[in-house]
Every structure is written in C-alpha cells, then in structure tokens.
Amino acid sequence: MRDVREALMAGRTSDGKPVLRPLSPHLQVYRPQITSVLSIMHRGSGIWLGFGTILLVWWLVALAGGAGAFAAVQRFLGSWFGMLLLFLWTAALMFHFSNGMRHLAWDAGAGFEKPTYHASGWTVVAAAALLTVLLWVIGLALG
Q1: What global pTM score does this model have?
Q2: Is residue 123 part of a domain?
Q3: How far apart are the first and last CA of the chain?
C-alpha cells in the first residue's frame, strides 16, 4: 500500500478475497439539501446562542455593578453594532427554537417522509424569520 488513503480503502469480501472499497464522498460531492443545511445552521445557531449569553451575562453584571457600568453596556448595546449582535442573537434563538420543535416531532416518530421534511424545513426557516421580526417590531415599538 502506498498511503493511508489506500490502506483505508483495503477490505475483504465475505469469502476473504481482497478488494478496494470506495471511501465515502466528502461535502464537495453532495448537493446541499434542506436537512443538511438546517442541521449545520442548528449547530451554528447553538454556538451563536453561547456568544449571546455572554452579552446577557455582561448586561446582568453591569446591572449589578451600578449606574455607570450599566450605562456603558446600554450605550454599547444601543449602538448599531450592539443592535446587530442582539438581532443575530434573537434570530439564532428563534431558529434554534423552531428547529428544536421540528426535532421533537422527529423524536416522536413523525415527519420522516420526503415531502413532510421538506415542508417542515421551510416552515422552520419561515417561522424563525417571522418570530425574529415580530419580536423586534414589538420590542422597538414598546421602546
């Protein structure tokens, strides 16, 4: 064998004859599908929720730290960059929540048919977008 890749492909048939098995193709070969894209986005939204939680903790610590510290955090969160971070955190939360509901349905054994998982996938995207915008509209209106 010339290299590790070839060694990984080496195998034997059920009667013991040596054969070269194909390796599973990588992401470049597969066409993105709604389930794979949403799975990757679910992981990404979970990571972003961790960063957003750091913002929340910073805000709570500043609240306990006094008027000066709280005003500084409020200034940052009220800036365009802070608002962008809060918007992305809200979007991640709404996506993670919506996709979590989809996973709960799957855990119950429902929604594995191709038309159903396509429809539920696009429903997750629409629900996350709608909930994010709705929350921001209500939040900004109540000021």
Answers
A1: 0.80
A2: yes
A3: 68
